[in-house]
TrEMBL record:
<dbReference type="InterPro" id="IPR051783">
    <property type="entry name" value="NAD(P)-dependent_oxidoreduct"/>
</dbReference>
<dbReference type="InterPro" id="IPR001509">
    <property type="entry name" value="Epimerase_deHydtase"/>
</dbReference>
<dbReference type="GO" id="GO:0005737">
    <property type="term" value="C:cytoplasm"/>
</dbReference>
<dbReference type="GO" id="GO:0004029">
    <property type="term" value="F:aldehyde dehydrogenase (NAD+) activity"/>
</dbReference>
<feature type="domain" description="NAD-dependent epimerase/dehydratase">
    <location>
        <begin position="3"/>
        <end position="212"/>
    </location>
</feature>
<protein>
    <submittedName>
        <fullName>Nucleoside-diphosphate-sugar epimerase</fullName>
    </submittedName>
</protein>
<dbReference type="InterPro" id="IPR036291">
    <property type="entry name" value="NAD(P)-bd_dom_sf"/>
</dbReference>
<dbReference type="Pfam" id="PF01370">
    <property type="entry name" value="Epimerase"/>
</dbReference>
<feature type="region of interest" description="Disordered">
    <location>
        <begin position="117"/>
        <end position="139"/>
    </location>
</feature>
Length: 303
């Protein structure tokens, strides 16, 4: 199967591409830069140049593939409207290109904000509709194509996909700790972050491509929720920093843009996903990765 992948050289995308290649698939990857193109070519991936604003390239990639894995996102937290608009336009372009083909269309979404009364499950519907909502309401938009001959599958990732080399949320929190000389957590530190190791996430993506039916919602989650106090204490241990609480109303001032995310309580389960795909997470836990030094120095400083 030829799989067209956006975000193919990203943190999750690079691991997913390796998993797809190992499973015997061919991969065509969208590459924005020369460096990304070279990295993909070195793996044997066919490169299609373009980015999320290049809808013609995205359309052509989708039309020429047997399946599409959409992982790219601008992640512009200073101007989320730009990210939301680009995400919605890309999803609509891919969906329109696949109408009536019964081809798989897997797209990245998230578990945060799904359920305020308990751990989010795969049966919880996304509350985000329309272009002004987070991710431009892309999950609900994509799932509409399941009734139009597209095998749409939503991949709801944990907010932390961790491992050596991760430059995401936990790396940002660790960077704030080093900068301020204290590893902090919001409030009582009982709010929870779901997490999954990068290798487990990549394996789930490959299984979802092969097994998930149209309209399926998969939770790419290994740990239902890691307490933010435990995260802060682990960062404090490896960075030799004191650990303390930050009032909830001061989280944004202390952590910056990441403060709003780190203050959320967003537990999520993946029991239905594990049963559907036969997927069992086997990678290190988030705390194990932190203790192993995954976030002890800035990502850019790692060799």
């Amino acid at each position: 199967m030829l799989v067209f992948v956006t975000g193919a050289s990203g943190w999750i995308g690079a691991a997913a591409v390796d998993e797809l290649l190992a499973a015997g698939h061919q991969v065509a990857g969208l590459a924005r830069s020369d460096a990304s193109a070279a990295a993909l070519e070195a793996k044997g991936v066919t490169v299609r140049r373009g980015d999320l604003d290049d809808l013609d390239s995205i359309r052509a990639g989708a039309e020429g593939a047997d399946a599409v894995l959409h992982l790219a996102n601008k992640h512009d937290f200073s101007n989320p409207a730009i990210s939301n608009a680009a995400e919605r336009a890309a999803v609509q372009t891919i969906g329109d290109a696949l109408v009536g083909t019964d081809r798989p269309f897997l797209l990245a979404s998230g578990v945060a904000g799904l359920n305020q009364s308990g751990p989010a499950t795969e049966s919880d519907l996304s509350p985000y509709h329309g272009p002004e909502s987070p991710r431009g309401g892309s999950e609900n938009l994509a799932l509409e194509y399941a009734d139009r001959g597209v095998r749409t599958v939503s991949l709801r990732f944990a907010p932390t996909v961790h491992g050596m080399g991760d430059h995401g949320f936990i790396a940002a929190i660790a960077a704030v700790a080093r900068e301020r000389g204290v590893s902090a957590y919001p409030g009582e530190g009982t709010n929870r972050w779901p997490a999954v190791h990068r290798s487990d996430a990549a394996r789930l993506v490959s299984l979802g491509l092969e097994k998930a039916p149209a309209g399926a919602i998969l939770h790419v989650v290994a740990e239902t929720g890691v307490r933010t106090r435990d995260i802060a204490e682990a960062i404090g241990r490896v960075c030799d920093l004191p650990v303390r609480s930050i009032p909830l109303d001061s989280a944004q001032d202390h952590f910056g843009w990441i403060g709003g995310f780190f203050s959320m309580d967003a537990p999520a389960t993946s029991l239905a996903t594990q049963q559907l795909l036969g997927w069992t997470p086997t990678g290190p836990t988030l705390i194990e990765d932190i203790d192993a030094g995954a976030y002890s120095v800035p990502t850019s400083a790692r060799v």
